[in-house]
């Protein structure tokens, strides 16, 4: 057997044991997945603390519902689905959160040659634009481009048809393109319509 086959077989066995109530098997599965889940949650929620809470909620939920998992090969997709739904719930709770308004004025006397600070500013711009997307669009972007999952697997994780995945992805990318093409004449942290 090749290494990938051995790992898949071991994972299936651990999932089978976890379904039967083996806490140690479940812990082993979580240890192998927790960093990846935290990365997904952080990309979706854009806040490390909220992401950690969402992952913890997802793992508690997974332990409670592990017996409902019928196919051990679906473990990763099932765990990602639970994590994404926990992120949705966390985002819903935080909608009332206030944002700090910052106004950044570039120094006209400084040279405009690209450097690491410019790259950091560009990355920050992309992250802010991603943060302005609805969470459903953010989740599709993260699963498709950050985890490099195929569209059908993204649909399975989000429990939506592939056509809906495609339309959300299309709308999200169009929104990102439009917002990045517009001049940034509004303060950081405030939407173009003036709302926070």
Quickly list its features.
single chain, 0% strand, mainly alpha, 196 residues, disordered C terminus, 8 helices
Show the helix and strand layout.
Blueprint: H1 3-19, H2 23-45, H3 48-65, H4 75-93, H5 116-131, H6 135-146, H7 151-158, H8 162-181
Can you offer a commentary on this structure?
The chain has 196 residues and is mostly helical. It contains 8 helices and no strands. The chain has helices at residues 3-19, 23-45, 48-65, 75-93, 116-131, 135-146, 151-158, 162-181. Helix 1 (3-19) packs across helix 2 and helix 2 (23-45) packs antiparallel against helix 3 (48-65). It is elongated, with a radius of gyration of 20 Å. The termini are far apart.
Summarize the structure.
The protein is mainly α and 196 residues long.
Mean pLDDT: 82
* Number of distinct beta strands: 0
Strand content: under 5%
Structural class: mainly alpha
- The parts where pLDDT drops under 50 for at least 5 residues are 98-108, 110-114, 185-196
Helix and strand element order: HHHHHHHH
Largest sheet: none
Helix content: 55-70%
């Amino acid at each position: 057997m090749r290494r990938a086959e051995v790992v898949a077989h071991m994972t299936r066995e651990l999932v089978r044991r976890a379904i039967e109530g083996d806490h140690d098997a479940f812990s082993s599965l979580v240890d192998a997945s927790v960093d990846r889940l935290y990365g997904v949650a952080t990309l979706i929620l854009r806040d490390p603390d909220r992401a950690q809470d969402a992952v913890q909620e997802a793992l508690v939920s997974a332990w409670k519902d592990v017996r409902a998992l019928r196919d051990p090969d679906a473990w990763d997709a099932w765990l990602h689905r639970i994590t994404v739904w926990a992120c949705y719930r966390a985002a819903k709770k935080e909608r009332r959160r206030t944002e700090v308004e910052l106004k950044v004025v570039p120094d006209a006397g400084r040279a405009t040659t690209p450097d690491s600070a410019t790259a950091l500013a560009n990355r920050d711009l992309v992250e802010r634009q991603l943060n302005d997307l609805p969470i459903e669009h953010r989740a599709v972007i993260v699963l498709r481009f950050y985890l490099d999952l195929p569209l059908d697997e993204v649909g399975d994780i989000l429990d939506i048809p592939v056509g809906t995945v495609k339309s959300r992805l299309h709308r999200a990318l169009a929104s990102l393109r439009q917002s990045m093409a517009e001049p940034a004449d509004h303060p950081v942290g405030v939407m173009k319509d003036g709302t926070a």
